[in-house]
Specification:
With 634 residues, this protein is α+β, with helices and mostly antiparallel strands. It contains 20 helices and 22 strands. It has four domains: 212 residues, Heat Shock Protein 90 (2-Layer Sandwich), CATH 3.30.565.10; 134 residues, Ribosomal Protein S5, domain 2, CATH 3.30.230.80; 95 residues, Rossmann fold; 129 residues, Four Helix Bundle (Hemerythrin (Met), subunit A), CATH 1.20.120.790.
């Protein structure tokens, strides 16, 4: 491997605040998986080799020559050091400062905050955030990094004890690449044993596609031993020759994750277009799943040569939680990221893999509904984005969707919902909100529950958009129960409904007329409700208006100045409404009912989780009503 010399004089610099916090946590952590430092550093070395091999496609002068790309680990027990050397793309002085002194990876600062607060215990996940290098400080009290960027003649040395500062100095290195030297802490002697390092490498890094060698480095002339790893692309092997443990470790490598994959896809397609895919669905939700960029996490290889991890176009963004690689024999080695977007072969690969994933998810949902429910809680909101965006697989996607409903605590499919629909029911009923518990207590559900009509409880932000976009399932319309045009009279109820006492029809009609008069500036209309059984009132949107929950979202994000006037529905079986209806025929009722009408509409707003427009007036009216009630009793 490369020889290097260093100049210890250099420029001192401060770590970015988030790096200092992370290093302090890492250096003082007591978690048991300290051995992952070697996995992370070897993984980074592998990435560096892959990037240089790709860069050499367009600049052949960058190629490493006959020796090929390799990673070498050396341990020196006397000096108490472990070094990891690669002949990859290397780093310039500026890249050393940027990559090792700052954190630019999205979401990392939030992760640092979580582990600092103690809400995130697994420090070994840092590789997932692009900062796996810092795992070196779990076992080392000082780290030196000597690196030379391919195409540059000068090398640089980065040094730090991980305590707030680092130095960067000039160095000498006879070829491109990077050497990391860890000066081991007292008490970490196990990692100075060659057998221990050999075990870690074969356990965690067997899948690395470049040879990894190890020797004790006792004599300068020692030749490196034979590679410890298989050094062949795992995805090119037949499925029968790959163990579950090898799949797991490859997933840990490619995803920088510590969880095990929930589902593995080893895909091989041959024919007009040939490609191989080794893809994984994580067991836990990635930290960046709902970040605005919606990045994919796939690596593209062409003829086993790494091309890019900027994989837009390889899969639809609603499958962005997938981790892994795709390797094709039918793409040009010089394909650019821009060409990926409009390439015919890429489009075929995307279509084939998407269909395979949806098919396997459908099988999993049928065979193991409990496990699938856990998957859905993690990734269902992302999948439902595919129902809203243009997508040739919408029908298949809709069939694997799962929903909470008023039936029970288990998730349901739309096919199962339809099988349970009552005679005369011609719609899939749903309600949208933010919190499942609050939505489940909505007064809009009362009439449906009393009749045994199942309602879907939708609580993901995307639900507001895909439902009207899709419109129906198997020719059955979706229908919001918060819209005012719901007619339940045609639905045959299984059990005979107990008819509650209601106010006389004439008194109710008079009350409705008086409420309309009192609330003409507050609501669009006042109607007798079919949906209420326990509550006195509720607000609903007119059939042509925006759904109420969407209107609240738009108003909260300044996309809507004010709500469209709503319809106030009253429950003629509720004691309060019966008493008000009886009062409506008395002399002076219009004046007496004004405050009651305003209190009713404010009560309905509170039930919807909305702010009352005039809290002071509401408080005054409520106090007066309570005062009159107490005076009447005494």
């Amino acid at each position: 491997m490369a020889n290097s010399k260093t100049n210890t004089a250099g420029e001192k610099m401060q770590f970015q605040a988030e790096v200092s916090r992370l290093l302090d946590i890492v250096a003082n952590s007591l978690y048991s998986d300290k051995e992952i430092f070697l996995r992370e550093l070897i993984s980074n070395a592998s990435d560096a080799c892959e990037r240089l091999r790709y860069a050499a496609l367009t600049e052949p002068s960058l190629a490493t020559g006959e020796q090929g790309y390799r990673i070498h680990v050396a341990v020196d027990r006397k000096a108490r050091t472990i070094s990891i050397t690669d002949n990859g793309i290397g780093m310039s002085r500026d890249e050393l400062i940027k990559n090792l002194g700052t954190i630019a990876h999205s979401g990392t600062a939030a992760f640092v905050g979580k582990i600092a607060e103690g809400s995130e215990k697994d420090v070994s996940q840092i590789g997932q955030f692009g900062v796996g290098f810092y795992s070196a400080f779990t076992v080392a009290d000082h780290v030196d990094v000597t690196s030379r960027r391919a195409s540059e003649d000068t090398a640089s040395l980065w040094q730090s004890d991980g305590k707030g500062e680092f130095t960067v100095a000039e160095a000498e290195r006879d070829s491109p690449g990077t050497t990391i030297v860890m000066h081991m802490r007292k008490g970490e002697d196990e990692f100075l044993e060659e057998a221990r390092l050999s075990h870690i490498i074969t356990t965690y890094s067997d899948h690395i596609t470049f040879p990894i060698t190890l020797n004790a480095g006792k004599n300068k002339g020692d030749e490196p031993e034979s590679p410890l790893n298989t050094a062949s692309a795992l995805w090119t092997r037949p499925r029968k020759d790959v163990t579950e443990q090898q799949y797991k470790e490859f997933y840990h490598h490619v995803a920088h994750a510590r969880d095990d994959p929930w589902l593995t896809f080893h895909i091989r397609a041959e024919g007009v277009i040939s490609y191989t895919g080794l893809l994984f669905i994580p067991s836990t939700r990635p930290h960046d799943l709902f970040e605005p960029e919606r990045k994919l996490h796939l690596k593209l290889y062409v003829k086993r040569v790494f091309i890019t991890d900027k994989s837009e176009g390889l899969l639809p963004v609603w499958l962005r939680f997938l981790q892994g690689i795709i390797d094709s024999e039918d793409l040009d080695l010089n394909i650019s990221r821009e060409m990926l977007q409009n390439n015919r072969v890429v489009a075929k690969i995307k279509s084939g893999i998407t269909k395979r994933i949806l098919r396997d998810l459908s099988k999993k949902a049928e065979k193991d509904p409990e496990s699938y429910a856990a998957f859905w809680e993690n990734f269902g909101a992302a999948l439902k984005e595919g129902l809203y965006e243009p997508n040739p697989d919408q029908e298949a996607l809709l069939k694997i969707c799962r929903f909470h409903s008023t039936r029970d605590a288990n998730l349901t499919s739309l096919e199962d919902y339809k099988q349970r629909m009552l005679e005369g029911q011609n719609a899939v009923y749903y309600i949208i909100g933010e919190d499942p518990e609050i939505v489940a207590r909505s007064p809009h559900l009362e009439g449906f529950r009393s009749r045994g009509i199942e309602v879907l409880l939708l609580t993901d932000p995307v639900d507001e958009f895909w439902v009207p976009s899709i419109g129906k399932f198997d020719d059955t319309q979706f229908k919001s129960i918060t819209k005012g045009d719901t007619d339940l009279s045609a639905i045959k109820v299984t059990d005979a409904e107990e008819k509650p006492e209601v106010a006389p029809e004439g008194e109710v009609a008079l009350l409705v007329a008086l409420l309309k008069q009192a609330l003409e500036d507050q609501v669009k209309d006042v109607r007798v409700s079919e949906r209420l059984t326990d509550s006195a009132v509720c607000l609903v949107a007119d059939s042509g208006d925006v759904d109420m929950h969407l209107a609240r979202l738009l108003k909260a994000h300044k996309h809507l100045d004010a709500f469209a006037p709503r319809i106030l529905e009253i429950n003629p079986a509720h004691k309060l409404i019966r008493d008000l209806a009886a009062r409506a025929k008395e002399p002076g009722a219009p004046d007496q009912l004004n405050d009651a009408a305003l209190l009713l509409v404010d009560q309905a707003r509170i039930l919807e989780g909305e702010a009352i427009p005039d809290p002071i007036a509401f408080s005054r009216r409520l106090s007066e009503v309570m005062g009159k009630s107490l005076a009447a009793e005494y």
